[in-house]
Amino acid sequence: MPHTKLQDLPTKQNTALEEKQIVFPVKYAKPKLICEIFNVSYSTFYRLLKSYEDDNLGIEDMYIDISSTLTLVNVEQFEKYLKAKHKKYL
């Protein structure tokens, strides 16, 4: 079996040269950003957060209270919660 040495030399195609070329999916966001992403008001967001505390509909770990003034929300779990809550008011 022949031994082959593979090398990927840096080129413009396989190297990130600018910060905007590096993209990470958003995992956690502050409530203000969640309101912008889902186009809901701040009061609606906190009403949804309170209803999540009362009945989480099987969605676990939707948010983390880092301190008394900072809450981080898992964007993916929040979206799952909204889908689970869809038309439950009827």
In a few lines, what is going on in this structure?
The protein has 90 residues and is of the alpha+beta class. The protein has helices at residues 31-38, 42-54, 75-85; strands spanning 28-29, 63-65, 71-74. It contains three helices and three strands, in the order E-H-H-E-E-H.
Largest sheet, if any?
A: 3 strands, antiparallel
Please report the distance between the alpha carbons of the first and last residues: 68 Å
Strand content: 5-15%
- Mean pLDDT over all positions: 88
Find the structural class using helix and strand composition.
Answer: alpha+beta
According to DSSP, the number of beta strands is: 3
Order of strands in the sheet with the most strands?
Answer: 1-3-2
Radius of gyration: 21 Å
> Could you say which overall geometry the principal axes of the C-alpha atoms support?
elongated
The unreliable regions are none
Query: What is the helix fraction of residues, given as a range?
Result: 25-40%
SSE arrangement, N to C: EHHEEH
Describe the structure.
The chain is α+β, with helices and mostly antiparallel strands and 90 residues long. It has a domain at 26-85. The chain contains 3 helices and 3 strands; from the N terminus they run βααββα. The chain has a 3-stranded antiparallel beta sheet. The protein starts with 27 loop residues before the first strand and ends in a 5-residue tail after the last helix. The relative contact order is 0.15.
